[in-house]
Write a structure and sequence with these properties.
7 strands; Rossmann fold; 13% strand; alpha/beta
């Protein structure tokens, strides 16, 4: 359907070398977009590009970037615009999550998470958004979390919840400021998702018993997988969502409905 087609569109996925970012990059490519992925580590980018190619037959280009460094973000914008012509779709999937009880939280880590999860997203929105304004069109999708809306019962997430709440509010404010320029800004906010990196954590926490515990907290009665974020991302990147902006979509199996 043309309503959901991304043919002729150029997309950049920051944090696209694994997990949700890689799944979204693959989904955008499958929907017809020309996709570039960006991350800090070259070896991860090479692996992700090869996995996407093997999974769906689509080539994606890749660029290194330190999304917490504004000069690096500006260089990424310049390189992708030079190579792709213009960037129509930006996905911000970069992020950091370190856990300490609030009373013992290492404030250097707290500041680092603010830098990556909040300032890094803002810098990408700022500089790619400026490029989108020149063309009067753009789709920005921030990957947030249910933890931007609801807290965790267990300790450890003071920084993560704070940063994701900031991303949600940033999304709404940028939607207001960028809307007159033809740019939509929305966010996807999943729950705990079994990415390849998360699988190791799950096994440490009890494997299938942990999966069952997570599933029982959700009305859908299963744990989330990366593919659950792909449909919402394609929708928000496509003409189907041209009048949708400033919204947070929760692919969370119903957690925010009952949590």
């Amino acid at each position: 359907m043309e309503l959901f087609s991304l043919a002729g569109k150029n997309a950049v996925v920051v944090g696209g070398a694994g997990g949700l970012g890689q799944a979204i990059a693959q989904g955008l490519a499958e929907a017809g977009a020309k996709v570039a992925i960006a991350s800090r580590k070259e070896e991860s980018l090479i692996r992700a590009a090869a996995e996407i190619k093997e999974a769906c037959g689509k080539d994606v280009s890749w660029y290194t970037v330190d999304a917490s460094n504004e000069e690096s973000v500006q260089a990424l914008v310049a390189a992708t615009v030079k190579d792709m012509g213009q960037v129509d779709i930006l996905v911000n999937s970069q992020g950091l999550n370190k856990k300490f009880p609030a009373q013992d939280f290492d404030m250097a880590v707290f500041q680092q998470m603010l830098s990556v999860n909040v300032a890094g997203v803002m810098m990408c929105c700022k500089h790619f958004g400026k490029q989108m304004m020149e063309h009067g069109y753009g789709k920005i999708i921030n990957v947030s979390s249910v933890r931007g809306k609801i807290a965790t019962r267990a300790p450890g997430n003071a920084a993560y919840c704070s940063t994701k709440g900031a991303v949600d509010m940033m999304t709404r404010q940028l939607a207001s400021e960028f809307g007159p320029h033809g740019i939509t800004v929305n966010a996807i906010a999943p729950t705990v998702t079994e990415t390849p990196m998360m699988t190791a954590v799950i096994e440490q926490r009890g494997g299938d018993a942990y999966r069952k515990q997570q599933a029982e907290a959700l009305p859908m009665r299963r744990m989330a997988v990366p593919r659950d974020c792909v449909g919402p991302a394609v929708f928000l990147a496509s003409p189907a969502s041209d009048f949708v902006t400033g919204n947070i979509i929760y692919p969370d199996g119903g957690l925010t409905a009952v949590g």
